[in-house]
């Protein structure tokens, strides 16, 4: 414990010295201290703040830049952007960067943003293990830019670890906790047994009334409803049953089942018409841009220079333009008509032969 505490104090002291050198514009000393911060972070026994590494790489690049080491400065700023893509805002708010340095960070921001973030291949089942990348909690499916990162692992049965990683591929995540990952914490989602009155009642009805007792009149209703329920299964296979609703009368449960007619045929017809209309509209737009517009431009060119075409050529050009124009109008008109008809059929329902607007969502 005392060794871990001493390591944490060393890391904090090194980082504080680094910031002091930057504040005092002692950039050569700051770069020497930065190497110590690299090593001290590996001994870090506690989670770092999410702002620590972006500031570290940002000021490290500043020290390199003011020491006339442009390449090293750009490498540090690239690394800072991989940790926090909003590094430019942090640099502007600090007030210690000149215009040229801010322009370089802005250009590097566009470069890093053009790269795709990589999805971390952390296992979905990690028990009580927690992974932190540059101070932020990461799980299965989290995204991050490829580059150097500080990975910190909190294990249930092993010491807290801090590791520098130079890539996000082929990481054996669970190997950092060799003594096991522990049991996963409860998700807080209640089980069916905890739902109380929200449990769905069983669909079957069990009549536990003894034969010697008088059966209430409600049992006749149950028998009649059972007879009605069995009929739709044979005669109307295109219907679906709504969820069961139960009411209690005395000691007998009464189940009411509502049969809802579906509009599958109307849905298919309406959807087919809308798709067909969309095809016609697309064809009309393409015809306009590939045939009508070029031919019209040729006519305008001939009008501006009448000597470039003969009368026969002008008549042919006019005829081809009119043909393509009427073709476009026909395609667009057919597309609008088919799409409108399909929408009318799809978004209405038929109730005894009478269309009902909005009936598609009625149930």
Describe the structure.
The structure is a single chain. With 363 residues, the chain is of the alpha+beta class. Helix content is 51%, strand content 13%. The strands form 5 sheets. A 4-stranded antiparallel beta sheet has the order 3-2-5-6, with no helix packed on it. Strands 1-4 form a two-stranded antiparallel ribbon. β2 (130-133) and β3 form a beta hairpin. The longest helix is centred in the C-terminal third of the chain and has 41 residues, at 264-304. It starts with a helix and ends in a 6-residue tail after the last strand. Residues 1-8, 186-251 and 359-363 have low confidence and may be disordered.
Number of helices: 9
How are the strands ordered across the major sheet?
3-2-5-6
Task: Give me the Rg, rounded.
Answer: 37 Å
Structural class: alpha+beta
Shape, per Cα inertia axes: elongated
Question: Poorly predicted ranges (pLDDT <50, ≥5 residues)?
Answer: 1-8, 186-251, 359-363
Please count the beta strands (DSSP E, at least 2 residues each). 12
